[in-house]
Design brief:
This protein is an alpha+beta fold and 411 residues long. It is built from 12 helices and 17 strands. Helix 9 (307-317) packs antiparallel against helix 10 (341-358).
Length: 411
């Protein structure tokens, strides 16, 4: 259930200068500002409580420069991911970052939330592609970092600093990205397992596989029982889907090779997903991360070797939990359909956060249908040493705390 921001209708500036003027006014009057991209991730983080201004980046959405031979592109942050993809596809290129609702999700919002989908394993994260960035800080001061060439090392690394900052340091206005060629062919190979231990063995075998997967997805729970394009049966407790991309001969060879490797492990049945069906299944994998009316959605990042262990912990919280694990990267998205707010707080604080930390990672609440009832500890976990550093950076960029107050880990 999307969060309702405590604002009137969003203001839509048409340029970075207009945006800077608005934020200067907000700074001078200590008025909270809530940056809005496509509005697809408003549930992420703590719910805002202070009335203020919503500022939409929808009007800051132009293509600035696209020297396709250099494999870079510069666009304003309000451009949607779908429009960016269409622009790049005309030159047989892409930004290999998968997001739900690409027709409304904006590039600036994706960078601000550091959202990454199934192709993270083979292609990296969104922060790996940002080589130049412009924004307006909490004083209304415009700044930029990086540049339009891949080997630019001048200045501070604002690109990485702002990625994942949830709009609390600055409102991103423009981005320069490095891009990649579109693959000639894409396919997936899938199989099902009756026991999670079998899935863990198959995952471990991918470390020494002769193939080079683009995505390694482990799917568990009732949400995947209705996914008719992904194999399973009455005794299936986990499904493994591996994405493969490259030239047509490369993909055909990898399908044969991986099927042979799985057969050697005792996997008796595999499904090749090719041709027109491949984009359909890719989209199913991408869309699972979308926020919806699920009672609680949690995102965890742990060591890849601990993924199956964490699935067991999540199933202890709720045997009916549905999980998508980007298993090669150690990222899990877990959807709990029927937890009360009290149960969600208890589960996050007493089970999920401790298990994630013990597995070398962390957990956050991605969305909840009763966000106002969740505590800061439940949403973000215990305060760590790095939180103090983040608070110091926040004061430099936003001394009066007007940008997205109350939403992030240091709030």
């Amino acid at each position: 259930m999307p969060t309702t921001l405590p604002i009137a209708d969003p203001i839509v500036p048409e340029s970075q200068d207009d945006l800077a003027d608005l934020i200067r006014q907000a700074h001078d009057t200590t008025t909270p500002v809530y940056p809005i991209g496509g509005g697809t991730a408003l549930d992420f983080g703590l719910p805002p409580k202070q009335p203020g201004w919503g500022i939409s980046t929808a009007g800051i959405n132009r293509l600035i420069d696209y020297p396709s031979r250099d494999m870079t592109i510069t666009v304003e942050a309000g451009m949607t991911m779908a429009e960016l993809a269409a622009t790049l596809a005309a030159e047989r290129q892409r930004l290999p970052i998968d997001v739900p609702h690409a027709d409304v999700a904006t590039l600036g919002g994706v960078v601000a939330t550091n959202y990454n989908g199934p192709r993270r394993y083979g292609s990296g994260t969104v922060r790996d592609y940002v080589i130049g960035i412009s924004g307006v800080d909490g004083r209304g001061v415009a700044f930029k970092g990086g540049g339009r060439v891949v080997k630019n090392v001048a200045g501070y690394d604002f690109c990485k600093l702002l990625t994942g900052s949830l709009g609390t340091l600055a409102v991103i206005t423009q981005l320069t990205l490095k891009v990649r060629p579109l693959p000639e062919s894409t396919a997936l190979l899938a199989c099902g397992f009756a026991h999670l231990t079998e899935a863990e063995t198959a995952l471990a075998s991918l470390i020494t596989s002769k193939t080079t997967p683009s995505a390694i997805e482990l799917l568990v729970g009732p949400a995947w029982d209705d996914a008719g394009d992904i194999p399973g049966g009455e005794k299936t407790v986990a499904r493994l889907v591996v994405g493969l991309e490259g030239t047509s001969p490369e993909v055909r060879w990898m399908l044969d090779q991986l099927a042979s490797e799985w057969q050697a492990l005792g996997v008796t049945s595999t499904l090749r997903i090719e041709g027109e069906q491949a984009p359909v299944v890719w989209q199913e994998l991408i869309d699972f991360g979308a926020t919806d009316d699920t009672a609680l959605t949690v995102k965890l990042a742990v060591r890849p070797s601990r993924v199956c262990e964490l699935i067991g912990v999540l199933q202890q919280v709720d045997p009916q939990v549905s999980i998508q694990a980007h298993a090669g990267s150690g990222v899990l998205i877990a959807k709990f359909a029927a937890l009360s707010a009290a149960d969600a707080n208890n589960a996050m604080i007493k089970q999920i956060h401790p298990a994630a930390i013990a597995a070398g990672g962390s957990a956050i609440v991605w969305s909840a249908n009763s966000p106002d009832d969740l505590t800061r500890l439940a949403v973000w976990g215990p305060v760590r040493d790095e939180t103090l550093v983040m608070q110091s950076v926040k004061k430099q960029f936003d001394p009066r705390g007007v940008l997205n107050p109350g939403r992030f880990v240091y709030s």
